[in-house]
Amino acid sequence: MVVLSKILPLIAAGVGIFVLVNAITRPAHAQQTAGALSSTFGSLGAAGSGIAGLGQGIGSGLAGLFQPVWEVANLFERFSNLASGSANVSAVAQETAGDGGSSTITWSSGATASVPLSSAAKSYYRSKGVSVT
């Protein structure tokens, strides 16, 4: 890397000197070279603009394709906010939803947990073969 940092400035200076000498000794040839370079770089610029336009077109097309999905999602969100009395599933709400006492759950592995359970929760655990007292 050190070698390149020493050589590249020398190469750039050499190219600059060559271009300057060429412009002074053969102005017509230098003008043709400049025209060719501007044509080449202009073509590259046009190609870059075309690629940028293609990317924007693809992005706009995909956004337009998914627009109906977003609108339906917004519609559901708007109407779900209008519904009142939605279920409260927070930990506090679930803890106070029990029958007043604590139930002990015993799994087949021997693990136990003592938690407040509603009668529906007790039935669910029993249907799964878990002991609930």
Describe the 3D structure.
- The protein has helices at residues 2-25, 27-82, 91-95, 119-127, and strands at residues 102-106, 112-116, 131-132.
- The radius of gyration is 38 Å and the shape is elongated.
- Helix 1 packs across helix 2.
- 71% of the residues lie in helices and 9% in strands.
- The longest helix is centred in the middle third of the chain and has 56 residues, at 27-82.
- By secondary structure, it is mostly helical.
Write the SSE topology.
Blueprint: H1 2-25, H2 27-82, H3 91-95, E1 102-106, E2 112-116, H4 119-127, E3 131-132
- Helix-strand pattern: HHHEEHE
Strands in their spatial order, largest beta sheet: 2-1-3
Instruction: Provide the low-confidence segments as ranges.
Output: none
The rounded distance between the terminal residues' Cα atoms is 76 Å
Mean pLDDT: 78
Q: What is the count of helical runs?
A: 4
